[in-house]
């Protein structure tokens, strides 16, 4: 699990969300109020015409995009492969964002904070 994933505030606009997806490595946007996860977005959620200043939260969902921290990794990986989702937000029982579970492109392992830091430094 990546313990400190990038987030956007819950009041982010559709434009801000689209800008975040300009990074091809971003697959799931996490919308938060403080530490509480209140919505997630994929590129598909933003498809179509939406006013630029519309709240991205109006297009967001948590359904099928969150996982509890006590789910075993093999079960989480199987669920992700079965549903075709490579990202799941890890939230506790109160909805607090704990991190991001990130399935690698080949589907045989999970991203680490070191993987992300290495990619960021190579892009700089």
UniProtKB/TrEMBL annotation:
Occurrences of domain CBS (ranges): 1-59
Q: What SUPFAM superfamilies does the annotation carry?
A: CBS-domain pair
Q: Is the keyword ATP-binding in the record?
A: no
Pfam families (UniProt xref): CBS (PF00571)
SMART domains annotated for this entry?
A: CBS (SM00116)
Q: Domain of life of the organism in this record?
A: Bacteria
Q: Which source organism does the UniProt entry give?
A: Nocardioides exalbidus
The protein's UniProt keywords, in alphabetical order, are: CBS domain
Q: What is this protein called?
A: CBS domain-containing protein
């Amino acid at each position: 699990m990546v313990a400190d994933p990038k987030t956007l505030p819950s009041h982010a606009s559709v434009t801000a969300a689209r800008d975040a997806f300009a990074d091809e490595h971003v697959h799931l946007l996490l919308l938060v109020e403080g530490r509480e996860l209140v919505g997630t977005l994929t590129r598909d959620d933003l498809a179509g015409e939406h006013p630029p200043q519309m709240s991205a939260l109006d297009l967001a969902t948590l359904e099928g995009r969150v996982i509890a921290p006590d789910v075993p990794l093999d079960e989480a990986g199987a669920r992700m492969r079965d549903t075709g989702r490579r990202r799941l937000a890890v939230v506790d029982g109160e909805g607090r964002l704990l991190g991001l579970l990130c399935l690698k492109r080949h589907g045989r392992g999970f991203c680490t904070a070191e993987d992300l830091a290495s990619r960021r430094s190579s892009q700089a």
